[in-house]
């Protein structure tokens, strides 16, 4: 028995063992809270659409960058910094999203980290084995030691990743292109830059059939893909966003819309934030903190006016 003063939002209850006669102090099954006044608790109260699973993973949050509408854009450039201590297992810091896929860095285990680049097939299915040959994603080229294959469960398509020991606290650059090939297909290519290496690394280039598009919907997102890590906080800073049109001219992107997934929108988890801070955009989720940034809010960072130094003709 004890008295608690509850605050609006998440409240932490700590239990400390005093004496035990076996392996455990106790096996906690539930906690009963009695209130002298009205007490309203929000919680995940049903498993519609597998929300128990998604609730454990935690809310995913996104930044959608505002792109000028009067040009065809081929390239998108972004920089990502994961603060030290904000990179628990299961984190995906997606840097360069587009209408048909995504590109970023993951924490896969205590010993493995990846650079991941994927493109969805135009055939809608969660099972890659169901995709007809005419609608499969084709690998045109890939970098050294890069794995390429298929993925499923959240749509299906072509996947590539490079096992790479990226570090929290360092800033990494991401560059990718989307362009039609003039034959009813679209080609997607991704490059990664580690400042310690100083040169662009090719991840992969894919052909998506039955698609005729330029770069659309540049965005970033932050998610946790391991349910057991949903109680841990993670965050990332996104800075210096630029898009290059089909003629190679750079345009700085300084506005972004902050959004969330079903778990965030329904309020099943409230530990999420995103927006602008100290001249950069940021995303934050997990850890059961009380976020204060509203979904669907618009944010703007200060322009720095320095476009990326990229020689397109010399990319690997």
UniProtKB/TrEMBL annotation:
It holds the Pfam family DUF3472. InterPro entries: DUF3472 (IPR021862). This is Uncharacterized protein DUF5077. It comes from Algoriphagus antarcticus.
